[in-house]
């Protein structure tokens, strides 16, 4: 469902309509998606979205769309395209008001690839005016900044003092910005490199963020942003623990985020915390808890007006039902997830859901069929997930490829499984994820009985040192 319905006061965006020119809404939406791929940005633009922009229903695009539109129309600002300034838009936009540092549109960690990016004092990156910036170099810069000065700088910026000194008596917009920047920076590094190696370094900014909640704030909006930022940071750090196999630590961080959401009365944060709790419970062998947590997330999420969020939460529920071997309940949840996903993106979609596109939908469905023992269907969905995934999400490509290898191995296709396993090992040269390595180890065990096959032998030979190195 749409979060912003057109009203009699909505003004058609004639400037944006002129930019579309002679193209149909569908043709223009396809051009937007192509432009997004050119800058490694995932947007699920369709004719309906274009129509909502032109009708004035969407007064301000989210950050992902804004980056794509800037790429499509160099030299034009959002206001030149007929959009309202972000700070004037109420609702979700108002919550983001002031979240970017002066002179920035948004966090380059969130934008993933910022031309001419350079490290800033708080470990984030300020948008520059340079030309194209190589994504591999950019990811190395991001990783180095976070690994070396990023966490210390974040802590110092957040606390207004050197690390180890008492927290501040007051907190304002700069501190809220610093927390939000840390969340985005951690997410982009995890997308590209996986959780291993990031988790221990992420604890320091999390501690700094929660220290800020005890500081005095003059404005309720800043206090709300600090609570939301600290909670989102707890979820991000919890995910790093989750993906690196530290399940008790992840459970603790997710519980911390949930408590923060309840204290602040933040339904969006509550839905996110329950979403990750459901995912963790499934992976930890507590499928009934996974179902309950996913259903609790849906109760909180209904208030937010995001069909894509509800789709993801239905998939979390489906994963729990699959582990309980309740095929009928799983299929019902999968159908609900696809129906909701088909409603398209919306301005109400949470910022953290940038990873959730068609590829993730296919990947999560593959996991459900795998848990139900339907290896053929699982492999079909896993293969589609690999094909559809945006290159930016390197960790997810490795995950889906490992999923595909496991499903093929169990489905009686050892050569194809070994080939997929080798591709996953190639990806692990850039991605560090204990979860992916564990999946490949299970596949290797499954394939040992086929070790006489040359392709299988090659995979097993490559896997042994990779497993030891991990």
Please supply descriptive tags for the structure shown above:
Serine Threonine Protein Phosphatase 5, Tetratricopeptide repeat; two-stranded antiparallel sheet; mainly alpha; single chain; 470 residues
Secondary-structure element sequence?
A: HHHHHHEEHHHHHHHHHHHHHHH
- The total count of helices amounts to 21
Number of domains: 4
Q: Enumerate the spans where pLDDT stays under 50 for 5 or more consecutive residues.
A: 1-8, 90-165
| Helix content, binned percent | 55-70%
Mean pLDDT: 78
Major beta sheet summary = 2 strands, antiparallel
* % residues in beta strands: under 5%
* Count of β-strands: 2
Strand order of the largest sheet: 1-2
Give the overall shape, derived from the CA principal axes: globular
Q: What separation lies between the terminal Cα atoms? A: 44 Å
* Helix and strand composition category: mainly alpha
Radius of gyration: 22 Å
